[in-house]
Design a protein that fits this description.
Keywords: Transferase. This is GNAT family N-acetyltransferase. GO terms for molecular function: N-acetyltransferase activity. Helix content is 37%, strand content 33%. It is globular and about 40 Å long. The two termini are 28 Å apart. It has a seven-stranded mixed β-sheet, sandwiched between helices. It has a domain of 113 residues: Gcn5-related N-acetyltransferase (GNAT) (Aminopeptidase). By secondary structure, the protein is α+β, with helices and mostly antiparallel strands. β6 and β7 form a beta hairpin. The protein is built from five helices and seven strands. α1 packs antiparallel against α2.
Length: 163
Amino acid sequence: MDDIHIRRGYLPGAIGRVAELHAAYYTENWSFGVYFEARIATELAAFMSRYDDSRDGFWTATVHGRVEGSLTIDGQHGQQQGAWLRWFISSEKLRGRGVGDALLSEAIRFCAQCDFPSIYLWTFEGLHAAHNLYQRHGFILTEERIGSHWGVKLNEQRYELLL
């Protein structure tokens, strides 16, 4: 991982690049479309506009200065509802190199330091590598429901880690 750098905080261009990474992966592999990309870009931009370094986390993994992965912790309601893990993605270039594990470890450490009671995330059935990663870090599947949060009908899944 010598050429990969993980950092916390805003990086110019990261909002667009994180939206691009999501759109490219999920369109190619799950037939998501413009609705999904627009939702990611809009929600991530809104999050970054209210970002508070004391309760929120935004990590990027870069290779030669280009964002190739990210993970976000939305702590706005962290004390009451748990921290919300969002926008977790790695490019093809980084998959299988331990970057997802490193990003998730950083996020869990941050949430523990913030004294959040838990961390939760929403995903969907079929993302086996991601689910295995969550489970290795102690997340458990707590809810499943058919929904169209991502613009297509899927079996949505909620994972949670009690801290």
